[in-house]
Amino acid sequence: ELDPVERAFQERIDAGQKVEPKEWMPEGYRKTLVRQISQHAHSEIVGQLPEGNWITRAPTLERKAILLAKVQDEAGHGLYLYCAAETLGISRDEMYEQLHSGKAKYSSIFNYPTLSWADIGAIGWLVDGAAIMNQVPLQRCSYGPYARAMVRICKEESFHQRQGFDILMKMVKGTPAQREMVQDALNRWWWPSLMMFGPSDDASVHSAQSMAWKIKQNSNDELRQRFVDQTVPQAEYLGLTVPDPDLTWNEEKGGYDFGEPDWTEFFAVIAGNGPCNAERLNARQKAWNDGAWFRDGLVAHAEKMTSRRAA
Ligand code: 3HC
Predict the structure, then answer these.
(1) Three-class SS of residue 91?
(2) Strand, coil or helix: what is 256?
(3) I need a labelling partner for 265 at 20 to 30 A (CA). Which of 1, 7, 144, 179 fits?
(4) What is the pLDDT of residues 249-298, one digit of tens each?
């Protein structure tokens, strides 16, 4: 049973109105958004690592420039999203602390290694493709700053997805060894990409409330289905085989039936036990620690300027 203030809030949500930073909101609504937006920001920041791994080894100068720009975009998305979360009353230092201490989650997908150049193509195509599928509806999220941040982020993600597909198009037209590399990348990235949408609906603890608050517009399984329906024809276009023996077109539902992701693996990865969790966290901790002298310098400078003004 909602009290009158909460009921009025829910009515505004139901009427499709946006909630803005300084307005009253239920504590649970605020907390859910801080959780989701900060996890999203951390995903963008940690997401730079697997691709950054290939900047020095991109096959041509042009590919290197494109990849650099893409990784830089991810940094921008992260900072943008930290700002959106800050409007809810959490500080950036607190969010960093949560990431560096291992308390905060970030997307499971970034705990897998990038073993070949084809992985960079597969990430753009599948990972950014899944991100777009998830984030386009978030442009209509009830919380204004998050919804608006998604508009620009989705535009940039579209460029990222095209650059990934373009890498793979080039490679599948190459040598048999290159085609094999692409198939191998799809084999390794397919299931983790499906896991990006989160646990199945019956295991998703937050979905019902987040959907009632219009933070989420669609359930995890709905978006996963859309992603499969969109991506399978693209795999066929590339001449690749999706590594799922249960994948079949279902005429009646107008979509594909597909196998179940390995949820044991998913829960292990989000609990910190994926192939690269320790490596990713170490990289972020090291970057933070290596930047200490710079932050100290900024604070010392700011203090000097303040005391000069006071004198
Ligand atoms: N990776 C890590 N954790 C995940 C996850 C995943 N793929 N999917 C779910 N989880 C976590 C949830 O965060 C939650 O944990 P918590 O209670 O500790 O916060 C738990 O598993 C239960 O899942 P629910 O389905 O109940 O949680 P949500 O309703 O929050 O849904 C979500 C999960 C769909 C990921 C949702 O949070 C969401 O839409 N987030 C915004 C988008 C986002 O974070 N995207 C990151 C993708 S990568 C990216 O954008 C970078 C790009 O440049 C590639």
Answers:
(1) coil
(2) strand
(3) 179
(4) 999 999 999 999 999 999 999 999 999 999 999 999 999 999 999 999 99
Beta strands in the chain (DSSP E): 248-250, 255-257
For residues 228 and 137, what is the distance between their CA atoms, to the nearest angstrom?
17
Closest ligand 1 atom number to CA of residue 206:
26
What Å distances lie between residue 127 and 124, 176, 182, 285, CA to CA?
A: 6, 25, 15, 24
Percentages of the chain per state (helix, strand, coil), in multiples of 5: 70, 5, 25
Q: What is the pTM of this model?
A: 0.96
Question: Which residue has the least CA distance to atom 31 on ligand 1?
Answer: 198
What backbone phi and psi angles, to 5 degrees, belong to 257?
A: -90, 145
Q: Environment class of residue 168 by beta-carbon count within 10 Å: exposed (0-12), middle (13-18) or buried (19+)? A: buried
Q: What is the Å distance from ligand 1's center to 172 Cα? A: 32
Instruction: Tell me if 29 sits within 8 A of 213, measured CB to CB.
Output: yes
Residue 255's DSSP bridge partners are: 250
Nearest CA to ligand 1 atom 19: 35
For residue 281, the CA-to-ligand 1 centroid distance in Å is 18
In the reported structure, the alpha carbon of residue 253 is separated from the centroid of ligand 1 by a whole-number distance in angstroms of 27
How far is ligand 1, taken at its centre, from the CA of residue 33, in Å?
A: 12
Q: Are the beta carbons of 218 and 137 closer than 8 angstroms? A: yes
Q: Say if CB 260 and CB 203 are below 8 A apart.
A: no
Q: What per-residue confidence (pLDDT) applies to 268?
A: 98
* CB 201 within 8 Å of CB 221: yes
In tens, the pLDDT along 80-116 reads 999 999 999 999 999 999 999 999 999 999 999 999 9
